């Protein structure tokens, strides 16, 4: 009897039933891609919680499909990943995550080295007001010089490369890239016209196929009309060495292109990062 094979939603490979997991969104993942996703989550918090089609993947439902060591690492790190206000030991050579049970009032005691960290400024425990963090100040100075913007909710620095001035931060806050105000509370233009033109030129000229002025103008209008994109229509483009516009990875065989806004992303960013 011939064993049926099923296609992995991420790598498009064919696998027998015992090497395939069905996720909450009903997409199928091979053991290799599932392990790769959970391993990547430990290094890149934008992938947490592990998810596909914006639906979280319950750890307990796939634990048996994960490598034993990886499953143990994920279980041990889950509290840290779930923590919305993480605290780490201020000692650079330690930097251990300090869990909630070791935080009292305005200070946290490292369970690894015993040093105490201020919960406000994240530096060493001190008397009086928190001192300014010189490294943070230098980053903010660079951000101002480069024209970058800060999220008005979590303080994350954002650099806009493509798209309109409507920014949705990793913390889910929405704000205007041009002025930093909460989205829909300012009068700034939706697009920077020069950035829009450059984006249209880049899209039209993909793959070394230069397009004319008419093609660029058409693409400008298309991008302007489709700026509020849900990224729900993807097409596979079989071209080698394409760069994901979200994470920067270079794909060996193919890339996925949104048919609406024309952004190109790897399968991981499409399935697991949005």
TrEMBL record:
Pfam family for this entry, one: IBR
Domain RING-type: start-end pairs: 4-192
Entry EC number(s): 2.3.2.31
GO MF entry, a single one: ubiquitin protein ligase activity
Record-linked InterPro entries: E3_UB_ligase_RBR, IBR_dom, TRIAD_supradom, Znf_RING/FYVE/PHD, Znf_RING_CS
PANTHER family found in the cross-reference section: RBR FAMILY RING FINGER AND IBR DOMAIN-CONTAINING
Highest taxon in the source lineage: Eukaryota
One example of a Gene Ontology biological process annotation: protein ubiquitination
Reaction(s) catalysed (UniProt annotation): [E2 ubiquitin-conjugating enzyme]-S-ubiquitinyl-L-cysteine + [acceptor protein]-L-lysine = [E2 ubiquitin-conjugating enzyme]-L-cysteine + [acceptor protein]-N(6)-ubiquitinyl-L-lysine
Protein name from the UniProt record: RBR-type E3 ubiquitin transferase
Enzyme class label: transferase
Keywords assigned by UniProt, alphabetized: Metal-binding, Repeat, Transferase, Ubl conjugation pathway, Zinc, Zinc-finger
């Amino acid at each position: 009897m011939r064993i049926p094979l099923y296609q992995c939603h991420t790598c498009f490979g064919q696998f027998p039933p015992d090497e395939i997991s069905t996720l909450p969104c009903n997409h199928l993942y091979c053991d290799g891609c599932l392990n790769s996703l959970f391993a990547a989550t430990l290094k890149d918090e934008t992938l947490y919680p592990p998810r596909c089609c914006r639906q979280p993947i319950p750890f307990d439902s796939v634990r048996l499909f994960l490598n034993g060591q990886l499953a143990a690492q994920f279980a041990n790190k889950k509290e840290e990943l779930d923590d919305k206000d993480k605290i780490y030991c201020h000692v650079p050579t330690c930097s251990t995550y300090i869990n909630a049970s070791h935080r009292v009032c305005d200070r946290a005691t490292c369970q690894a080295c015993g040093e105490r960290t201020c919960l406000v400024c994240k530096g060493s425990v001190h008397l009086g007001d928190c001192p300014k963090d010189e490294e943070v100040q230098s980053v903010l100075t660079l951000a101002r010089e480069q024209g970058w913007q800060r999220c008005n909710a979590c303080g994350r620095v954002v650099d806009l490369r493509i798209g309109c001035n409507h920014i949705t931060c990793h913390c889910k806050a929405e704000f205007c890239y041009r002025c930093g105000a909460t989205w829909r509370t300012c009068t700034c233009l939706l697009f920077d016209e020069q950035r829009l033109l450059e984006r249209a030129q880049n899209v039209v000229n993909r793959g070394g196929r230069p397009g004319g002025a008419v093609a660029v103008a058409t693409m400008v209008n298309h991008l302007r009309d489709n700026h509020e994109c849900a990224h729900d229509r993807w097409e596979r483009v079989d071209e080698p060495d394409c760069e994901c516009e979200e994470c920067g990875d270079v794909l060996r065989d193919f890339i996925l292109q949104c048919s609406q806004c024309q952004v190109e992303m790897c399968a991981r960013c499409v399935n697991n990062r949005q």
